[in-house]
């Protein structure tokens, strides 16, 4: 049987893009979208409509680099850019991801405590250890199946939205004809939304997962050396990425709608965490909505923490020329797995210190937005280099989308600094 025959059905084409998109709606993202909905009600929906084509573009470019070159982003950056740039980007990625892991694990602990009772810290510790063990013990193919099933947890937010009666004419007007404001809170929220939606760790993860899929198929080769496979594989990447990012933005929109129609409508305008958003929902939207929202936090956290830790490990291992693959046993990639375990456990440990990782949720999204700009510039330059891509440099359409995404993020960050000044 030809392993490169077209996948049977639409679902067969979903993989790295779907998991990447679902991981984008992690507990830190849920907190950011909840804060935006509570504070500005429907006034931030336009950011998600704008972000969708942009994130499709930059994520597709990242996936192309991985599948075409046969290497992750860090390895390609190491080969084609100065060492200081590589180490700076990787260090910032590790810092941002560890903060995100801490915030996500803390939110999972709080959500589990609210639903099941008991100490939030111990649930957080259990979630962190479970995540690290699964990444180390399960082979890549098995672990990917687990991650795909966990994407279903995001349907909790779609279900929560369906339990509410929403003013759709007002929602459509706010989304299509928004009222824009030039002040610190508004601009910072815009940057936070873009930062949590278009995050650097997602670029590294999707590119690396394409390389993992490549290695998992003994008959596959990097597309620049097997151009006859390019048409089918690039079509699959397009379907996978468009679907995954669409799913991600739909869920983000549902979270924003839910909190806008409940919390924002009742004067609750400050949300410090996703768990607080769930708790605040209970007296307004009922126990069912509260339970759905809370269980979604736990499910998305279990999906996102491995992506955060894994993307950091891929980046560091690629920069340091270490073996890096979730398909390898622990003995064959000890340094790679050490980064995964270390980032996960450090993030978990932060939940037990005086540092409040929940307070860092919103600002970690802002930090991601700032870091994303230089990373996107590097990604776009890699994607048009024949030395990286061979004859399969990205199309003009992807170039336009990718550079437009970079420009929008840069403008948002500059506007944030201008308003802070």
Describe this structure in words.
This protein has 421 residues and is mainly α. It has one domain: Amino acid/polyamine transporter I. The protein has helices spanning 16-24, 27-40, 45-69, 73-80, 83-116, 120-137, 140-150, 155-162, 168-176, 184-197, 200-216, 230-262, 274-285, 287-320, 334-350, 360-383, 386-389, 396-420. Helix 3 packs parallel to helix 10 (184-197). It comes from Duganella alba. The chain crosses the membrane at residues 43-63, 84-108, 120-140, 147-166, 186-205, 246-268, 288-316, 336-355, 361-388, 400-420.
Percent of residues in β-strands: under 5%
Number of helices: 18
CATH topology term: Amino acid/polyamine transporter I
Major sheet size, sense and barrel closure: none
| Share of helical residues | over 70%
Coarse shape:
globular
The count of strands amounts to 0
Subcellular location: Membrane
Keywords: Membrane, Symport, Transmembrane, Transmembrane helix, Transport
GO molecular function: cadmium ion transmembrane transporter activity; manganese ion transmembrane transporter activity; symporter activity
Membrane topology: Multi-pass membrane protein
């Amino acid at each position: 049987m030809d392993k490169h025959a077209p996948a049977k059905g639409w679902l067969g084409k979903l993989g790295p893009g779907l998991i990447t998109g679902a991981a984008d709606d992690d507990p830190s993202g849920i907190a950011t979208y909840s804060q935006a909905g509570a504070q500005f009600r429907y006034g931030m929906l336009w950011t998600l409509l704008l972000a969708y084509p942009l994130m499709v573009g930059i994520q597709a470019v990242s996936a192309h680099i991985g599948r075409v070159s046969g290497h992750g982003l860090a390895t390609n950056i190491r080969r084609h850019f100065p060492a200081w740039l590589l180490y700076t980007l990787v260090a910032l990625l590790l810092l941002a991801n560890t903060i995100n892991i801490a915030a996500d694990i803390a939110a999972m602990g709080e959500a589990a405590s609210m639903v099941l009772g008991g100490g939030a810290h111990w649930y957080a510790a259990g979630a962190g250890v479970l995540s690290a063990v699964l990444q180390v013990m399960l082979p890549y193919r098995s672990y990917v199946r687990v991650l795909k099933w966990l994407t279903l947890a995001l349907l909790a937010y779609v279900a929560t939205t369906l339990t509410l009666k929403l003013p759709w004419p007002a929602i459509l007007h706010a989304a299509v004809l928004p009222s824009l404001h030039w002040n610190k809170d508004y601009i910072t929220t815009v940057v936070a939304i873009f930062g949590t939606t278009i995050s650097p760790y997602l670029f590294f993860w999707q590119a690396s997962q394409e390389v993992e899929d490549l290695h998992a198929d003994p008959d596959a080769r990097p597309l620049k050396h097997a151009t006859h496979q390019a048409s089918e594989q690039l079509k699959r990447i397009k379907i996978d990425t468009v679907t995954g990012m669409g799913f991600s933005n739909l869920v983000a929109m549902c979270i924003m709608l839910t909190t806008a129609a409940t919390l924002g409508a009742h004067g609750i305008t400050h949300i410090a965490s996703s768990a607080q958003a769930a708790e605040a929902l209970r007296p307004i939207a009922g126990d069912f909505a509260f339970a759905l929202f809370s269980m979604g936090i736990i499910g998305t956290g279990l999906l996102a923490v491995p992506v955060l830790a894994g993307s950091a490990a891929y980046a560091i291992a690629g920069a340091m020329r270490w073996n890096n693959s979730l398909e390898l046993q622990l003995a064959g990639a000890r340094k790679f797995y050490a980064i995964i375990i270390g980032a996960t456990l450090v993030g978990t440990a932060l939940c037990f210190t005086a540092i409040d990782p929940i307070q860092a949720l919103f600002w970690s999204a802002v930090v991601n937005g700032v870091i994303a700009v230089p990373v996107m510039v590097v990604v776009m330059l890699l994607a048009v280099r024949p030395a990286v891509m061979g004859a399969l440099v990205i199309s003009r359409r992807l170039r336009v989308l990718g550079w437009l995404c970079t420009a929008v993020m840069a403008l948002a960050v500059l506007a944030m600094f201008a308003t802070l000044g």
